[in-house]
Write a structure and sequence with these properties.
Shape: globular
Structural class: alpha+beta
Distance between the termini: 27 Å
Order of helices and strands: EHHHEEEHEHEE
CATH class: Alpha Beta
CATH architecture: 3-Layer(aba) Sandwich
Strand order of the largest sheet: 1-2-3-4-5-7-6
CATH topology: Aminopeptidase
Largest sheet: 7 strands, mixed
Number of strands: 7
Number of helices: 5
Strand content: 25-35%
C-alpha cells in the first residue's frame, strides 16, 4: 500500500535525492532547482505551497510539489518517482494530489514547466488536461522549453 503525505522535515533529503535523479540524468539541474530542493520550507511551504511524499513501507518512493505563485495560481513542480516504482500510476496520483490541493486552496489554474526530453511526463500532463502554451517571458528555469496550463473548474 502506498500512502501520500504532506511535507515532513525528515523527508527533505528524499525530496532532493529523487529529483536529482531526473534533473541530473537529463542535464537539467539549475541553481533555482537547488534552492527549492534544499530549502523547501522557505521556497515552497512558507508562501503557501506543499510538498507531497509517496511512502511505501515508510520509504519515500515519490514526491511532487505545489508551489503557490499567487492566490489563484499554483505551479506543479518537482515530480519524481523512484525508478524502481515507475509504471504503476504513482506519478499520476501525485499530480492529482497537487491539483486537488491547488483547487482546495482556491486556485483557478495550475501551470508547469518541463523539457521536451521528458516525453513520459509531458504525456502524463496532457492526459491530466494540461494544455501547451508559449513560454512566458518571465520563466525562471533556463532549460525549460515546455510550458503547460490547467484551468481548474469547480469539483463535481
Amino acid at each position: 500500500m502506498i500512502e501520500v503525505i504532506e511535507f515532513r522535515p525528515e523527508f527533505r533529503a528524499d525530496f532532493e535525492r529523487l529529483n536529482r535523479i531526473w534533473l541530473e540524468g537529463h542535464g537539467l539541474l539549475e541553481p533555482v532547482d537547488l534552492e527549492h530542493l534544499q530549502q523547501p520550507e522557505h521556497h515552497i511551504l512558507e508562501p503557501g505551497g506543499q510538498v507531497f511524499f509517496a511512502l511505501q513501507d515508510s520509504t519515500v518512493i515519490g514526491t511532487c510539489a505545489a508551489i503557490r505563485m499567487s492566490p489563484a495560481h499554483f505551479e506543479l513542480a518537482k515530480l519524481s518517482v523512484d525508478p524502481e516504482a515507475r509504471g504503476h500510476g504513482l506519478g499520476r496520483r501525485l499530480c492529482e494530489v497537487v491539483i486537488d490541493y491547488a483547487r482546495d486552496a482556491g486556485a483557478t489554474e495550475v501551470t508547469l514547466t518541463s523539457h521536451t526530453s521528458l516525453t513520459s511526463a509531458i504525456r502524463l500532463y496532457e492526459s491530466l488536461g494540461f494544455r501547451h502554451e508559449p513560454l512566458p517571458a518571465d520563466i525562471r528555469y533556463e532549460t525549460a522549453n515546455v510550458f503547460m496550463r490547467l484551468t481548474l473548474g469547480p469539483t463535481s
